[in-house]
Amino acid sequence: MNRTRALAAGAVGALLVVAVTSFASPWWTLHRLRDAAARHDADAVSAQVDFPALRDSVKGQLLASISRDVDHADGNNPFAEIGRKFAMAVANPLIDAVVSPAGVAAMVEHGNVSIAKPAPESEGPGAEPAREKPHAALHYLGWDRFAVTAQDGGSFIFRRDGLWSWKLAGIAMPDRR
């Protein structure tokens, strides 16, 4: 009887450890991504990102923003449709340039979800800018997704990739209206 209780307690303990570590794994993933970005380690950043899914996420939001801006423009403007087509032609190379290990590392390191390169902060000639660790709020969106809301109001969306691992699979751009 004691042996059965010991086995049951061990099984419950093991399940509890698996559940707690699985629940805490997003914080570990975020720590690893921030650390890789701070070290400028492109390979380590790449290991944490699902680039095809991230590019699709950025492309969808960028094209929706372009369409929304053109729709709000004057309907009598004959150049509006030309501008939309030009913007869509430029979108793919722009997204490929931004959604790269260096681009993701810059967004994570500076705590901003935007496609604009952050301006360097300099305190004098040759001075290294003082950097604070970006503050972000992490919250689950379900069993297989969590979001990290950045300083600028945008969010990094992670998707589960196994029991304990996650990959950056999308971003939600901040509302700039």
| Number of separate helices | 5
Characterize the main sheet: 4 strands, antiparallel
Q: Tell me the radius of gyration.
A: 21 Å
Beta-sheet strand percentage? Answer: 5-15%
The total beta strand count reads 4
Order of helices and strands: HHHHHEEEE
Shape: elongated
N/C terminus separation: 67 Å
Average pLDDT figure: 78
- By secondary-structure content and strand pairing, the structural class works out as alpha+beta
Question: What's the arrangement of strands in the largest beta sheet?
Answer: 1-2-3-4
Quaternary state of this entry equals single chain
- Low-pLDDT sequence parts: 116-125
Helix content: 40-55%
What can you tell me about this protein's structure?
This protein has 177 residues and is of the alpha+beta class. The protein is 54% helix and 14% strand. It is built from 5 helices and 4 strands, in the order αααααββββ. The chain has helices spanning 2-39, 42-47, 51-72, 80-98, 101-110; strands at residues 137-142, 145-149, 155-160, 166-172. The chain has a 4-stranded antiparallel sheet with strand order 1-2-3-4. α1 (2-39) crosses α5 and α3 (51-72) runs antiparallel to α4 (80-98). The longest helix has 38 residues, at 2-39. The relative contact order is 0.15.
